[in-house]
Prior knowledge:
Blueprint: H1 16-40, H2 44-61, H3 67-76, H4 80-87, E1 120-126, E2 136-143, E3 151-154, E4 162-167, E5 170-175, H5 176-185, E6 192-195, H6 197-200, H7 206-213, H8 216-222, E7 226-229, H9 237-253, H10 265-270, H11 279-288, H12 296-304, E8 308-312, E9 315-318, H13 319-331, H14 334-338, H15 343-356, H16 365-372, H17 382-385, H18 388-392, H19 408-423, E10 480-481, E11 488-504, H20 518-525, H21 529-555, H22 566-573, H23 585-603, H24 616-633, E12 636-641, E13 646-650, E14 658-662, E15 669-673, E16 679-684, E17 686-687, E18 703-707
Parallel strand pairs: 2-4, 3-6, 3-7, 7-8
Antiparallel strand pairs: 1-2, 1-6, 4-5, 8-9, 10-11, 11-12, 11-14, 11-18, 12-13, 13-17, 14-15, 15-16
Amino acid sequence: MDPEPRNGTLPRSPTHDEKAKITSLMRDWRDQAWRLRTAWVSTKIYQGIRDLLSDYVFDLVMPPSTSAKKMSSRRNFNPDYKLQMYEKVKRPILDKSPREFDGVSPFSYSAMNFSDDRFATRFLMLHPGDDESHIQITLEVGSLQSCSPYDALSYTWGDKIYHAIECNGKMLRIQENAWLALHALRRPNEVRKLWVDAICINQDDTDERSRQVLLMRQIFQQATIVIVWLGPESSGTKNVFDLLGTLSKARASEELEKQSQPFTTQDLLTARLPGRTEQAWTDLDMFYWQTWFTRVWIIQEMAVAQTIIFRCGRHLCTYDDLEAASNYIVSHSLTALTGVDPSKFIRLSQFRQDYQQRNPDSACIDLILCRARQSYSTDARDKVFGVLGLIRQSRTPLPLTPTYTQSYGRVYIDTARLIIENSKSLDVLSATDDHRSSLIDELPSWVPDWEVSHPRFSPFCTAKAFAHWQASGNLEPSLEFSTDGLRLGAVGFLVDAVNHVSDSFLEFSPVPGGDISAHNVTKIVNWSSKLKSIANNTVDFYAQQRWRQWERIAMNLGIYPNESAVMDVFARTITADYDFGSTSSLEMYKSWKRIWEYATTYEGNKIEKAYDGMTSAELANAMKFLEAHRKASFGRRLFTTTRGFMGIGPNRLRRGMLIWVLGGGRTPYVLRKRKNQSYTFLGECYIHGAMEGQLVPRNETARKIWID
């Protein structure tokens, strides 16, 4: 029996108004706690501690990393992580079973005679069959100069799970992804002619591999159709292809003037698209993060193809539809709302557009390699060899022949040396990342490690907006190399030194083309709502602190050397003086700050919820500024110099480091002097008011230095 209440009456539940009042008090308490926290980080005590850490402590706690740390660093920026997490809950639907062949001898490749025909290759004749019959193929040697029409398969090799097929009457073991693709592509009543790299090239013959690499561009360019195999379908595949079709149609039917307006949550409903939290968006995001979009060989295959069809199990999508859907997501800033990030495909499509249109501004060796490094390869040498066909078509062809007998490091060193010798420019140095995270130990400090797929910055040389820079002015380049090719000699001037340094810009940015946002990560790993809130709050909190610190360091300058207003210089510096047209950089910066003010005042600390509290025009300006800031400053630090200049430089920037301008360099460079009087290269930098040769002495002789 329940005890009777002491006063003789039963306890009542709170009324609706009382519940609302309690909720309001809870929200007010959270907002007040947030304001107290932000007030603390604005105090001189906190700021002094933070600046001390930024200027000094990194020299003590960041020694050269071990191999384990390097691999950990690579994993942290590995886009495949998203797919791996997703596949834990989205298993492919496999309706095929492996078959073995008892008593059948194994297939062995016969050598091709390249002396008679350097365009020789093998073609795969896929014999007809139904779903229940085993795969039968015939390999035939032919010439690309006289062959009949064929289709080429673009895919990833996948896990090393092997299945047996019949090849020329013998048994050949192939990896599972190729085996599944052949099942899907087989016709019921006719032979189909294909080219499939893992089968048509003898992968155990390094000489044949090297020769066939030189033909890859022509192979995919001549193919009637390039079929992109994305693997078997999963439980979310239908959602993906239905949504791609909807987005493509929406892109085709919308008015031109509305194509670049950021969407709000209400706009999604108006456009009859799924709500921002619906499963279809998560499925689509995972589609864009499939392994195929991240592989280096895919770049050339997609760029040169005549016609492309994407296939996932039974579902098909044309290249044009996928491109339209991706552009729709980007133009309406749907990444910020839904977490769908099509940047991997957008980057690939840019390669294709540049190649198909023969864009001379993008036919630059440095640009091709910098953009390709974001992709992955099983063999590190393929970061160069995988785009060799595009490089050979560039305006400055690279006299490099693929050689798989050379070490990874020697391939990268020779590539950098050839680029510098051919171009008489130091642009390739802009791609050099922090060598403490390098995966190849033998590289000199001036050689980019292309194996680091996701450097923490975007090289200035890859942006057309910065192509006019010439920090070395009229200083003629005088470039040479030591006999072993490990040291770079250049002439230049020591023009300044680093004085104050900020924290790095490393927090996530919820914009199209940005890195994985905290919102995306929490969606994938299916954290609890409380942990999601903590993650988002931490990201927003850290970002606001960094903005305050950067502003404070800038304002401490007082007067700028060219007498410009310091806040105007600050807004222009953190975007590398990006041209926003009729709107000033300072006004764009103020638009972005209003997002933070709205988020802090009305939502506690939820930056993503501030989007719905702004007009489309305000949001557009804010997002344009953030995107320009991200491209210029992500992975970099704000700094000031002993001469009173302001700039953004590499993540490993520290107080006391030296700033040089070198003949052949478009930007100033940060160097550190070694005990042997040579220098270590640390990275490029932007210094406001110094990008057109203003710091080059007029009546002095340039010094010759060596960089190890």
